[in-house]
Specification:
Blueprint lengths: L1 H6 L1 H12 L9 H24 L6 H22 L2 H22 L5 H22 L4
Helix pairs in contact: 2-3, 2-6, 3-4, 3-5, 4-5, 5-6
Length: 136
Amino acid sequence: MIALGWSGLLPFYACAALAWWQPRALPFESSALLLAYSLAIACFLCGTLWSSARDVAEPAKSLRLLVSNGLVLLATGGVVFASTHVALAILMLVFWLVYAMEWLGAGQRGWYLRYRFQLTCMVSIALLAFLAAPVN
């Protein structure tokens, strides 16, 4: 789990680096790759809220499931309908809201929440680096 989480940061940072130095020979835009990857990760994280909902009593269980679905719709709507900058800001918000839901609801303390906080910070830094790139 730890290795997958840290290695999952590589595409975020690769896209941020490409935004600062976009080789003309590449057959894709780094923004399209970053949006698709960020959306995939956001949907994956929202899905983890579903599995953790079984350990939460009502009415928190229903709220957790509704928030999970709402965050997927928010992230997808941002990617489909907003500009790249706005979509990435929405995705960053979704990442932080998923972390907040984990922190508030699952009773998971200790190493996992520290790990998730670190990953969320690192993703945010990569997205901010991408947004600050002069090519965008």
